[in-house]
Specification:
The chain has helices at about 15-25, 35-45, 65-75, 90-95, 110-160, 170-180, 200-210, 225-235, 250-255, 270-285, 310-315, 320-325, 345-360, 365-375, 380-395, 410, 425-430, 440-460, 465-470, 475-485, and strands spanning about 5-10, 30-35, 50-55, 80-85, 100-105, 190, 215-220, 235, 250, 260-265, 285, 295, 300-305, 330, 365, 400. It is of the alpha/beta class. The longest helix has about 50 residues, at about 110-160. The two termini are about 75 Å apart. It comes from Sessilibacter corallicola. InterPro entries: AAA+_ATPase, AAA_lid_NorR, CheY-like_superfamily, Homeodomain-like_sf, HTH_Fis, P-loop_NTPase, Sig_transdc_resp-reg_receiver, Sigma_54_int. This is Sigma-54 dependent transcriptional regulator.
């Protein structure tokens, strides 16, 4: 095709007929001419053509035979035939075999021929566009499916038990072993443990190591959510069921059909909602808010709580039958203070991840920093440790992160103190007594040692600045550091 005009190839063994065709079509088309079917095929090898119009009766190869080959080799080219024999069997057969768009009887009218060619070229153009779009859609669908499969494979790898960060002697090994044993079996699991211990991480590990791994994993936090809103989220609602319900909404049970639904903070749901949830778990059916129709669902439920649900059951605040529905198997996660052996490993892992996310180079923690991290009791568990590492990295001006970057509360714990609570906070709040036989002199020295250590770390062991803050001379400060054996660590 040249410019905006389609190119038409005219084929006829009579030169006069070709000249007539060329004069007729020249105003609307770019015209190429061939005096035989063989010349036409050679020309089609070189030129881009929108349509072929040819005479039926030609020596060697007739029009139908030529257009049959054109259809096989260039299916997007429109094909028209000129013939004075409308009842010819070759013409009738050619309509099917050669896919002829139209045959035009001789003598043909110029306007009729031009209109037929324009329509055929436009049809061929639309067919090409349609084929291109269909191919694009197929490719897009295939690419989307490939991306979905890659994402699923990545998620399965990401939440593989081997990817759970821990040391070789970690107390978490027991929980990981339990997950490996129970994941393949379609039972409800209740995960318990303090906030920030990774309950959702283990719920995902259960899902992606189960037979439902290819299906959805849906999360809902049930804490402090009103019953009506929670019912709408979990069970769905019908259009007009309440103000703002502008359309039908499938709840999370329906969205998780075939997969896993993780209900976090399950211990916070009200007594009335416990009844609604129990019915769904028993009957495996959900009824959308404002709807009478019940829908079957096939969902594995994993619940989590930081409460002691057995104590809640005993106190009458949680239904016993719902508890046993949720806790066919129970998985208990230890707090970070119970797995201190994991703290250095976790800290290094969070440092590496945060360094990549922030595009800020960091190599390691100083020995003093790791010692202080390991000594702290981490009431916020893994989440608090992650936040502390991120904070240290943001404040750091060196690839090695020192203890002076840490929050003050972390520095108030003596490395050799076996008690889980910070010494200064315990003293000030009087929540913890001194050990039996501890004299006033012992208590004073312990407090002085801790104050010295915290101050030195904050000032990066600069004795002049530390002595000024403490109101001591450099000589007096040095004497106290020597007395308590305090010195910087790498």
């Amino acid at each position: 095709m040249t410019g905006n005009r389609p190119t038409v190839l005219c084929v006829d063994d009579e030169q006069r007929s070709l000249e007539t065709l060329e004069r007729t079509l020249d105003d609307d088309f770019e015209v190429l001419c061939a005096t035989s079917a063989y010349d036409a095929l050679e020309l089609l090898e070189r030129e881009q053509v929108s349509a072929v119009v040819c005479d039926q009766r030609m020596p060697g190869m007739n029009g139908v035979e030529l257009l049959s080959q054109v259809r096989q080799r260039w299916p997007n080219i429109a094909r028209l035939i000129l013939s004075g024999y409308t009842d010819s069997e070759d013409i009738i057969r050619g309509l099917n075999e050669a896919g002829i768009y139209q045959y035009i009887t001789k003598p043909w009218h110029p306007d009729h021929l031009i209109l037929a060619l324009k329509n055929s070229c436009r049809l061929a153009e639309l067919e090409t566009e349609n084929e291109s779009l269909s191919t694009e859609i197929r490719l897009t669908a295939a690419q989307a499916e490939t991306r979905i499969q890659e994402k699923k494979a990545k998620l399965k790898q990401q939440f593989a038990l081997s990817e759970i960060v821990r040391s070789s002697e970690s107390p978490l090994n027991k929980a990981c072993s339990q997950v490996q044993r129970i994941a393949p079996y379609d039972v409800s699991v209740l995960i318990t443990g303090p906030s920030g211990t990774g309950k959702e991480l283990f719920a995902r590990a259960l899902h992606y190591n189960s037979l439902r791994a290819e299906q959805p994993f849906i999360v809902e936090n049930c804490g402090a959510m009103p019953d009506d809103l929670l019912a709408s989220e979990l069970f769905g609602h019908r259009k007009g069921a309440f103000t703002g319900a502008m359309g039908d909404h499938a709840g999370l049970f329906e969205q998780a059909n075939g997969g896993t639904l993780f209900l976090d903070e399950i211990g916070d749901i009200s007594s009335s909602f416990q009844v609604m949830l129990l019915r769904v778990l028993q009957e495996k059916e959900v009824r959308r808010v404002g709807d009478d129709k019940r829908r079957r669902v096939d969902v594995r439920v994993i619940a989590a709580t930081n409460r002691d649900l057995e104590a809640e059951v005993a106190a009458g605040r949680f239904r016993e039958d719902l508890y046993f529905r949720l806790a066919e198997l129970t998985l208990t996660l230890p707090s970070l203070s119970q797995r201190k052996v994991d703290i250095p490993v976790l800290a290094e892992h969070f440092l590496k991840c945060s360094s990549e996310n922030f595009s800020k180079p960091a190599e390691k923690f100083s020995e003093e920093a790791l010692e202080a991290l390991s000594a702290y009791h981490w009431p916020g568990n893994v989440r608090e440790l992650q936040n502390e590492v991120r904070r240290m990295l943001v404040l750091a001006d060196s690839p090695v992160l020192g203890a002076e970057l840490m929050s003050p509360r972390l520095l108030r714990v003596l490395p050799d103190n076996n008690e889980p609570e910070p010494l200064l906070e315990a003293l000030l709040s009087r929540q913890q007594g001194w050990s039996e036989g501890c004299t006033l002199k012992d208590k004073t020295e312990m407090l002085e040692k801790q104050l010295l250590r915290e101050t030195m770390i904050r000032h990066r062991w600069n004795k002049s600045r530390a002595a000024e803050e403490l109101g001591l001379s450099r000589v007096g400060l040095r004497a106290k550091l020597d007395r308590y054996g305090l010195e910087p660590k790498a």
